Amino acid sequence: MANKALAKRQVMRVSVPPSTAKPRNPVAVAARLRAAGPHKKGATAARQAEKRALAKAKLVADD
Predict the structure, then answer these.
(1) Could you tell me the sign of the dihedral formed by the alpha carbons of 41, 39, 24, 11, in that order?
(2) Does residue 48 carry a pLDDT above 80?
(3) CA 32, CA 25: separation in Å to the nearest integer?
(4) Angle at 16 between CA 10 and CA 18, to 5 degrees
(5) Dist. CA 40–CA 35, nearest whole Å
(6) Which residues of 8-34 are buried (b: 16+ CB within 10 A; e: fewer)?
(7) Fewer CB near the last or first residue (10 Å), C or N of the chain?
(8) Euclidean distance between the first and final Cα of the chain, in Å?
(9) In this structure, are residues 23 and 29 in contact, taking their beta carbons and an 8 Å threshold?
């Protein structure tokens, strides 16, 4: 009895990595291969980062 209960819980699961899995949409394979990586930050992000850096920096006036 205990063996049957244990056998029901021990189900073999085989996982296939996504790269080797068959795609649902074969047309999407070409799109996935064209997918771009991370891009560099834009001018707005650079400006905002500089503004935050200025706010953090303690500016002292020369007397």
Answers:
(1) negative
(2) yes
(3) 11
(4) 140
(5) 16
(6) eeeeeeeeeeeeeeeeeeeeeeeeeee
(7) C
(8) 90
(9) yes
**What whole-number distance in Å separates Cα of residue 19 and Cα of residue 35?**
14
Cα separation, 55 vs 57, in Å, equals 6
Whole-number Å distance between alpha carbons of 9 and 14: 15
**Cα 54 from Cα 48, distance rounded (Å):** 10
Q: Which two tokens stand for residue 17?
A: 């990595």
Tokens read off for 26: 């074969």
pTM over 0.70: no
Full 3-state SS string of the chain: CHHHHHHHHCCCCCCCCCCCCCCCCCCHHHHHHHCCCCCCCCHHHHHHHHHHHHHHCCCCCCC
